[in-house]
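Quick one, C-alpha cells below. Sequence please?
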C-alpha cells in the first residue's frame, strides 16, 4: 500500500484511523477491508458529481477486489443537502440489497460526506461508513468526528444548516492528498479557513505554534507544496481528533477550553450568512453564493471583534487574524448583509442556542477560545459591523 500518515481517533470500540497520503484511493478496497476486519461483499458509493475522477478510482479499486459496488451521485449544494436527498441514499442502499455489514462509502466534499454518513447511521439502524474526502475542507474538518446530517427548510427561518443528523463515527477516513491538486483556487482557500480556525484553538490542544506556522507557510500552501500540505492536513486532523476524543458528543460545559463546541469558532456567524444566496465574496454577482469556508473566515473575524468588545481578547488579535486570512486569499468584509437585528435573529437557529439565548465560541488569546453564554447584543453587533463592507 502507498505510504501514509495514520492518525487514530480513539473512541473505545468506535476507534478508527484517518490515513493521510497520496494515491490512497487506488487502494480503497484493501484499506476498507483492513479497517472493517473483513472484505465486504457489496457497498454503496455516494459520489460527489464534482469529484468524478476520484470516484472512478474508488470504484475501480472495489471492482478489482471483487466487491459489488453500487453508486448514487449527489450534486453538492446546501439546497440539495436535504431530507429528500438523505431518503434517496437510503432507497439506493435498499435497492442494492445492502446488509448490516456492508458499508456506505462517501467520495467527495463535506456535503456528500454528511449526507452519506447520516444515511449510514439510519439504514438498518446503522451500517459502517467510510469517508474519502476530496476537498481540503472535508479532509481537515467534516470527515473527522462523526457529525452527520442535513439541512432543514422552515417557513419562518428559511434554510437551517445541519439541523437534522446523528453522531455516527466512520470506520475509516482516507484523505488522499492528490485530490487537492484538482481543486480550484476558491475551494482551496475555503478549506484554509477551517485550518485557520483550528490554529486559533491549537494552544489549548498541544500545538501552540500552529498560527505562526500558517503565517510562515501561507505562500507554500497556496502553491500546494507537498511538505506544507502534508503538515497542514496532519496538524489539523490531529487537533480535531484530540477534541473529539475529549468530548465526542459536544457535552462539555460552557467555559471549557476542550469542549467540542469550541470547534464552532466563527460558525455561528458563518451559518447565519452562508444560506443568503445573494452574498458574494468578491462583490461580483457571478461569485454567489458564499462557500462555507469563506463564511467561516468572515465569522472568525466577527468573533474576534465580539470578543474584543467584551474584553475577552486584545483587539490586535482580530487584526492579526484578518491579515492572515487576507494573505491566504479569503474575504474579510462582505457587502449586502441584512441589518444586525435580522442577523441576530438568524443566529437563534444555531444548535448551541439554549433557553433562547445566543451562545458563541469566542477567542480569548491566540490559540485559545471558550464557549460563552449570554453574549450581549451590542457585542454581537460589533462583530457584524466589523465584516460589513
Amino acid at each position: 500500500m502507498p505510504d501514509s500518515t495514520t492518525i487514530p481517533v480513539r473512541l473505545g470500540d468506535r476507534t478508527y484511523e484517518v490515513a493521510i497520503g497520496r494515491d490512497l484511493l487506488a487502494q480503497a478496497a484493501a484499506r476498507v477491508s483492513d479497517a472493517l476486519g473483513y472484505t465486504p461483499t457489496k457497498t454503496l458509493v455516494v459520489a460527489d458529481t464534482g469529484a468524478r475522477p476520484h470516484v472512478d478510482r474508488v470504484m475501480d479499486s472495489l471492482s478489482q477486489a471483487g466487491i459489488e459496488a453500487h453508486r448514487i451521485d449527489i450534486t453538492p449544494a446546501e439546497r440539495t443537502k436535504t431530507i429528500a436527498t438523505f431518503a434517496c441514499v437510503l432507497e439506493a442502499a435498499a435497492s442494492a440489497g445492502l446488509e448490516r455489514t456492508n458499508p456506505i462509502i462517501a467520495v467527495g466534499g463535506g456535503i456528500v460526506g454528511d449526507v452519506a454518513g447520516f444515511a449510514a447511521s439510519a439504514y438498518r439502524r446503522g451500517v459502517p461508513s467510510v469517508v474519502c474526502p476530496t476537498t481540503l475542507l472535508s479532509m481537515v474538518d467534516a470527515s473527522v468526528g462523526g457529525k452527520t446530517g442535513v439541512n432543514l427548510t422552515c417557513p419562518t427561518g428559511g434554510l437551517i444548516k445541519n439541523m437534522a443528523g446523528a453522531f455516527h463515527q466512520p470506520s475509516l477516513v482516507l484523505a488522499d492528498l492528490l485530490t487537492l491538486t484538482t481543486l480550484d483556487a476558491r475551494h482551496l482557500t475555503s478549506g484554509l479557513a477551517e485550518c485557520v480556525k483550528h490554529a486559533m484553538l491549537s494552544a489549548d490542544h498541544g500545538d501552540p505554534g500552529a498560527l505562526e506556522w500558517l503565517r510562515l507557510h501561507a505562500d507554500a500552501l497556496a502553491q500546494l507544496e507537498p511538505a506544507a500540505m502534508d503538515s497542514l492536513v496532519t496538524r489539523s486532523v490531529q487537533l480535531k481528533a484530540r477534541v473529539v476524543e475529549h468530548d465526542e458528543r459536544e457535552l462539555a460545559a460552557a467555559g471549557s477550553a476542550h469542549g467540542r463546541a469550541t470547534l464552532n469558532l466563527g460558525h455561528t456567524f458563518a451559518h447565519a450568512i452562508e444560506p443568503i444566496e445573494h452574498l458574494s465574496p468578491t462583490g461580483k454577482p457571478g461569485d454567489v453564493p458564499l462557500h462555507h469556508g469563506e463564511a467561516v473566515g468572515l465569522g472568525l473575524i466577527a468573533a474576534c471583534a465580539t470578543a474584543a468588545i467584551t474584553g475577552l481578547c486584545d483587539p490586535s488579535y482580530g487584526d492579526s487574524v484578518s491579515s492572515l486570512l487576507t494573505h491566504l486569499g479569503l474575504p474579510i468584509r462582505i457587502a449586502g448583509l441584512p441589518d444586525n437585528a435580522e442577523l441576530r435573529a438568524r443566529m437563534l437557529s444555531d444548535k448551541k442556542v439554549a433557553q433562547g439565548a445566543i451562545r458563541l465560541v469566542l477567542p480569548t488569546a491566540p490559540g485559545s477560545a471558550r464557549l460563552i453564554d449570554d453574549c450581549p447584543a451590542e457585542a454581537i453587533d460589533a462583530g457584524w459591523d466589523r465584516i460589513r463592507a
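The chain has two domains: 4-182, 185-387. The two ends are 50 Å apart (CA to CA).
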